[in-house]
Amino acid sequence: MSRLPSIYADPALYDLVHAEGTDDEVWLLTHLAQRHGCGIKTALEPACGTGRCLAGLLRRGWRVEGYDVSAAMLAFTRKRLAGWGGRVKLARGEMASYRPARRFGLIFNGLSTFRHLTSEREALAHLRLMAGALEPGGVFLLGLDLSVYGQDEPDEEVWECRRGGRRARHVVMSIPAEPETRRERIINFVTTPRGARETVLESSYDLRSYSAAEISELIKKSSLRIEAAYGYDGKDAILGGPERALWLALKPR
Ligand SMILES: C[S@@+](CC[C@H](N)C(=O)[O-])C[C@H]1O[C@@H](n2cnc3c(N)ncnc32)[C@H](O)[C@@H]1O
């Protein structure tokens, strides 16, 4: 595993910049679970971060499990979900090796987090472990951004985030991947006011890139198949079509 981006060491800041849209994301997860799953309201989130989605699922009556490699993220999530007792299990774990002790109606891994696994061996190991942790009829929702080599341009997105008394400005830049190296460079700047001054947290890291053909090939090598694809807004999409940020609904073969 490559070194973790420094923004993951500040869970409260990570949570602030990802808070907006979380309710919609949780709604979409439950909607897709209803459409493609087996009706069992148990969910696993690999690399669960601050548990923002797990919290939303708990409020909707689900039992949840999450794991993450970062001790700081887990400590934050434990505190956040402390009131839910036996409905929650949290653990420290690596996507390429964590084997859950039980099965789930829904497994979800979004925000291109799967692309932190920088080798095919690790990525396949994760897919196989998750396939083995699905209830019969359960669904694994994998959310990731795809590359179109030779066409992708460097990109920059800016968000202003505000919650309670806290504010932040989040700038995410990306440098496209080459098919030879399969590395997309992501550079994050999060600026927060601290009294009369501003603090800037810079964090840069590489994610493994996937074209539509590459993710499709990888999934074929696992014991999963692609049942459907959706845009992040939940609209029907086609793998290899114009929509590049996708949720793939994966089912065991
Ligand atoms: C983009 S955040 C996503 C967090 C959460 N899933 C969400 O949607 O907000 C990525 C998370 O992946 C975790 N992570 C990165 N590499 C990992 C790995 N190899 N195994 C487990 N967790 C990992 C980081 O600690 C971080 O919490």
Overview of this protein structure:
With 253 residues, this protein is α/β, with parallel strands linked by helices. It has helices at 11-18, 22-36, 52-59, 71-80, 120-131, 212-221; strands spanning 42-46, 63-68, 88-92, 104-109, 134-145, 155-163, 166-175, 183-194, 197-208, 224-231, 236-237, 245-252. The protein is globular, with a radius of gyration of 18 Å. It starts with 10 loop residues before the first helix and ends with a strand. The relative contact order is 0.16. S-adenosylmethionine is lined by residues 1, 4, 8, 18, 45, 47-49, 52-53, 68-70, 73, 94-95, 110-111, 113, 116-117. S-adenosylmethionine (SAM) binds next to helix 3.
- CATH level-1 class of the largest domain: Alpha Beta
CATH topology of the largest domain: Rossmann fold
Helical/strand content category: alpha/beta
Rounded to an integer in angstroms, the radius of gyration calculated over CA atoms is 18 Å
Strand content: 35-45%
Mean pLDDT reading: 95
The outline comes out as globular
The assigned CATH architecture of the largest domain is: 3-Layer(aba) Sandwich
Number of strands: 12
Task: Give the distance, in angstroms, between the N- and C-terminal Cα atoms.
Answer: 28 Å
Specify the helix fraction band: 10-25%
The H-and-E topology, N to C, reads as HHEHEHEEHEEEEEHEEE
